[in-house]
Amino acid sequence: MKQPQWVRFGDLIPCRSAFIDAHTPGSDQKENFTIIGGGVSESPDQHIHIQATPGFNIGAAGQPPRCFNSLHSHNTAEVFFVLKGRWRFFWGETGEDGEVVLEEGDIFNIPTRMFRGFENIGSDYGMIMSILGGDDAGGGVIWAPHVRAAADAHGLVLGESGRLYDTEKNETLPTGESEMPLPEAQWLNALLRPDAATVVKHYVARYWDMVAISAKQPVLVIGENGLLKDKPGFTIDFLTRTSLNQQAQTAEKDVVLMVMRGHWTLAWEDESLTLNPGDTVWLPEGTDYYLDVNVSGESSLFRVTRTEDAAGLTWTGDA
Fold first, then answer.
1. Fewest Cβ atoms nearer than 10 Å: which of 94, 152, 184, 278?
2. What is d(CA 295, CA 237) in angstroms, rounded to the nearest whole number?
3. Rounded distance, CA 271 to CA 273, Å?
4. Per the domain annotation, does 313 fall within a domain?
């Protein structure tokens, strides 16, 4: 049977060249982290911490103040929660369709079929954690046309294989490989263009609302019957010290625990582990485990569980 694996927040290894905007002014100081699965990095320099395929990918982005991630889209789910700092998320082909500000602990289930970007608007280095749908995370990233143009002007070219080539390092497209084609007009015209009120109502859950709702039992944040109704190939529930079921549990499907606040104890078989904010643990299907909180006070974590739902387009059922 596969054994649990974990990554400490302090052991995360960043990549500064993961994506096509790595040289673009305003984005050239961001750091990307691939925690579980291969993610959607376009660079062979990206370090993968846990080589597992639990049905979704776990990653993170760290950025100094006023650093932004350029507008892009995915074919599968992309969910973020703010671990540290204050962040502005914006969307639309030019980033002007709408925006929302997220504080620490807030979670955003970003709809597919729309360009999105994000910026650290806090005063210190910030970190957001991400969950991407599917083992292959949808096959990569679709960048807004103006992002591709800016990257080309600063020496970065994206091949049709999804690999990034840096002409400043004398890298060129291999023989037989063409540049990744730009999105066609028909695809661009079909993009979603929701306003901010719609996005906040149906796709954002606030941390302190989740804390209040989960006072006595865990709250389903993302799922068919969750606060944010969706079927992206996984569910996410939110646990606090007061809602914790202090009994042995079994991971019926692959489970990932992502600590937001506090210090937690995870035990399985004859092993135990203390978990701190920013730590991530993968529990393979069939793992019997026990969770507890070490001290009183604020404690919270997100639990991601694989489902049999296809990790495709955001569910279009009733919101």
1. 184
2. 21
3. 7
4. no
